[in-house]
Amino acid sequence: MTMSNTPMAANPLTRAVLEIDEYASGLGWDQPARLFALVDTARLRTQEPALAAQLGLQDESETTGLTPIEQDEIPAGKALDDFLGTIAWPDAVVGCALTVERLMLPPSAEASVPEGLDGARLTKWVASHPDRQEVRMTVAVLRDGSRDSALRLRDKDTPTEVLTGPELVPGLAEALSATFVD
Its domain of life (predicted)? Predict the structure, then answer.
């Protein structure tokens, strides 16, 4: 999934996050969560030349990149935390990424959250809040603990409006990191 419009970020992990964000953007909104394995591009070309050719990587000169490989669909009806708890990656996978859409509220709305709401009622309350925003989060982690993420708001859905940074979605980054713990 090589994307020509992805800006050349200095960090291979940031480039991978932006590439996945661009891919997800091309699919449109209201999509299910998507999980990706991140593999070392040079190692992939050496060890799996047929797969590298299938992915269009055989002619790339870059030796430090990461290639995202989309995994099977996340089972519908299974909580994301529960699903992530079942994952074990083979050694060839140096990292993973997840893209997921959620509703979020600005920090100013936190004070108005009614007390004692369970998960379902809180979700319903957020969904009906006038200040809610739809956001697509792409979070990636490497085995060495590196992490990065991209956030794209539905109402500002352009490549120049994507916010990136390693600490934007810390809970999701922790959950993805846990998939590499033995």
Answer: Bacteria
Q: Tell me whether residue 5 is in a domain.
A: no
- Is there a domain that residue 7 lies in? no
Question: Pick from 158, 145, 140: which is nearest to 99 by CA?
Answer: 140
d(CA 100, CA 98): 6
pLDDT of residue 115: 84
Q: Is 40 helix (H, G, I), strand (E, B) or coil?
A: strand
**For range 98-103, the mean pLDDT:** 92
- C-alpha pair distances (Å), 176 with each of 16, 87, 98, 109, 139: 15, 9, 8, 28, 8
- State yes or no: pLDDT of 40 exceeds 80: yes
CA atoms within 13 A on the CB side of 62: 15
Segments forming the whole domain that contains residue 130: 12-179
Mean pLDDT within 62-89: 85
Is residue 6, in this structure, part of any structural domain at all? no
How confident is the model over 106-111, as a mean pLDDT?
A: 77
Radius of gyration of the chain measured on its C-alpha atoms: 17
If you average pLDDT over every residue of the chain, what do you get? 85
Total structural domains in the chain?
A: 1
The DSSP line for 115-126 is TT--HHHHHHHH
Residue 73 lies in a domain: yes
